[in-house]
Design a protein that fits this description.
219 residues, binds S-adenosylmethionine, 7-stranded mixed sheet, alpha/beta, 9 helices
Length: 219
């Protein structure tokens, strides 16, 4: 599916989110508190738009994605960003490789959320950080109602005009609706050996930033 949307992926995102994707990426970057010298995994990096933003910190950032189409589109427009092919469920890295690991709008798309969270913990150093930027559930009832109307009706019809594969955006709306709420995702993180788990809502909870630390306890 992502191979099919790759060519216009960055532009479609910005149109459908009214440009908010940029502020969500910036908030993810800030939450990671990266320092030069940190080695960071940007999982499900797609075209590398998130990886490029994080690399401005001076940290070494490695983007990994399973879609060859997304990686190809990314390498063409961002030749300086490190993008590798890999599966979130079987990462090609040794245990405790990274100071921090992050995933933006990717965890919802991986088939097995629990296994991906555990694999992310495996490759992170004990005490290392995780930040998950993902669509979530608006907390205000009236706002949630208006947002769901946009998501289920307006978004697929706008996508028909601007995206290369509009069906992917019907999937997007349905997958956001089916995704666990803020507390539900936090519980999954704790089960996967992340500690000090907390979250912050962005844009009223349309997006949530979950953060945590890799437990020092053995898995
Ligand atoms: C919505 S895109 C997010 C891309 C980028 N992080 C961003 O913020 O724009 C989701 C990405 O998840 C990737 N993905 C889905 N399952 C994956 C897996 N098992 N391993 C690695 N990447 C995966 C897809 O190929 C796709 O590029």
């Amino acid at each position: 599916m992502f191979d099919g949307v790759a060519e216009r992926y960055d532009r479609t995102n910005t149109i459908l989110s009214f440009g908010l994707d940029r502020s969500w990426r910036h908030a993810t970057h800030t939450a990671l508190a990266l320092k030069p010298g940190d080695v960071v995994l940007d999982l499900a990096a797609g075209t590398g738009v998130s990886t490029e933003e994080l690399a401005t910190s001076g940290a070494t950032v490695i983007g990994v994605d399973i879609s060859q189409g997304m990686l190809r589109a990314g390498k063409r427009v961002r030749p300086d960003v490190t993008l590798l092919a890999g599966d979130a469920l079987a990462l090609p890295f040794a245990d405790a490789t990274f100071d921090a690991v992050t995933i933006s709008f990717g965890l919802r798309n991986v088939h097995d959320t629990a296994a991906a969270l555990a694999e992310m913990a495996r490759v992170t150093k004990p005490g290392g950080r995780v930040v998950i930027c993902e669509f979530s559930h608006p907390t205000n009832g009236a706002f949630r109602h208006a947002y769901l109307a946009y998501l289920m009706a307006a978004l697929p019809s706008v996508a028909r005009r601007v995206a290369t594969n509009p069906d992917a955006y019907v999937y997007l709306a349905e997958s956001i609706r089916a995704w666990p709420d803020q507390a539900g995702l936090a519980a999954k993180m704790i089960t996967a050996n992340w500690t000090n788990v907390a979250w912050r809502n962005l844009t009223g909870g349309i997006v949530a930033l979950h953060r945590g630390e890799r437990s020092h306890a053995p898995r």
